[in-house]
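Review this:
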Amino acid sequence: MVIYARISDDREGRQNGVDRQERQCRALADKNGDEIIAVFTDDDRSAYSGKPRPDYLKMLAFLRAGHAEGAYALAPTRFYRRLDDGLEFFKLIAEKALEVETVKAGRYNLATADGRRDALRAAVDAQHEAEQISERVRDAKADNLAKGEYRGGPRPFGYEGDGVTVREDEARHVRAATDAVIAGDSLRSICRTLAEQGARTVPRRYKQPDGSRGEPESREWTASELRKMLLRPRNAGLMEHRGEIVGKAAWDPLVPEETWRACKAVLERAERRTTTGNARTWLGSGLYRCGVDECPETVRCSTSGKGSRNHHVPAYRCRTGKHVTRVAGPLDEHVTNLVLVRLSRPDAASALLPPPRAAESREDLAATANALRAKLDTFVADYAADLITRQQMLDGTALTRQRLEQIEAKMAAQAQQSVLAGLPLGTPKVVEEWTSYHLDKQRAIVDALMTVYILPARRGRPAGFQPGVTKTYFNPDAVRIEWKQQG
């Protein structure tokens, strides 16, 4: 005989449920004088979801091959929760004349009409019970949604297991990462900072190659996981349902809503959608522009050319492949020097940072946004009560959504700041810190200050070139800088 044990939900990975089931089945087998030759276990596997249960399938194959005379389980619902699964199981029992017994419901008897009827009723009842549980869970989540309460699930980073209480040792990392994104840092650089600080993801039971779940483990942050976490509306204390913000949540926000919206606006820019295997490695790749008249292209850096001693030399080339080419190292050094001189000037802060602007208070904007979200719900309720027509509902919803988008844009704009705002402008420290900035931040600073155009270079050696002394032909006159910031 074999034992089959299953538990639907075991997020902690303790296996208490399946271990208890096995003990009870072994006790029943000992009482009946049966020998247990194999145990099949599906931990954290639902029989109603329709997803594969690896060990259940192994058990069916084991029984179908004639390796055992039957099976034990705690209850019929451990074998199946769906009618079609039950029918398949009954067919196997009848074909192989298997003995199947459960601790809760006794022995299966498919040799008589009454026995087959009882088995079918048990399968129908199992599916009915599963559907009732699903409805209760759905209704409970709907109630929580209406009240702005936590709807359950894995513990969210920054909060305790109740989903409401702020966990400060994680919340500070959420705030710092949000501010860093707004300031121009890349997700990869923020992940490295988190790793250096020992901040890891919430422990999860990750799926293994065999379909089971391993022991709970936390991992270092990846760019994709960090992006997903920073885009959560819950960070701003907002309730989300099916991808749409529906109102204020019951838990405290980790960051102000306008700060979250500014971070969201940055992360959703099309130019930030890069793959981890295609990271920038040169300051001007995709940033510097071709200086040939009417060419709209940027340049890219490649090492296809060869310099002295047959070594590959990284060089910027127009994306058309025919306009300009320039050795990357000296050009980046030239641009960096110009940037640092501008940032180190005593008047850098007053000249480069925008003046503060008058704006509506964050409290007023947040209150207006919440009122508009509540108004959206009233349109649906009024239409359901026949107080307005369908067209009135659609028109009112469209106008309210438009107004809500305008308010949300204002909130995002309030929190947005120049990438230059966090720099020690006007001090020598900006030069000292430059090399510690991630390349993405350096690129953002360059982009905020200037547009670099690479002009066609003259043929031949530039004036003043001394063979054996000067290493490159770099000519600063073949580069045009257009400053975006005046002063």
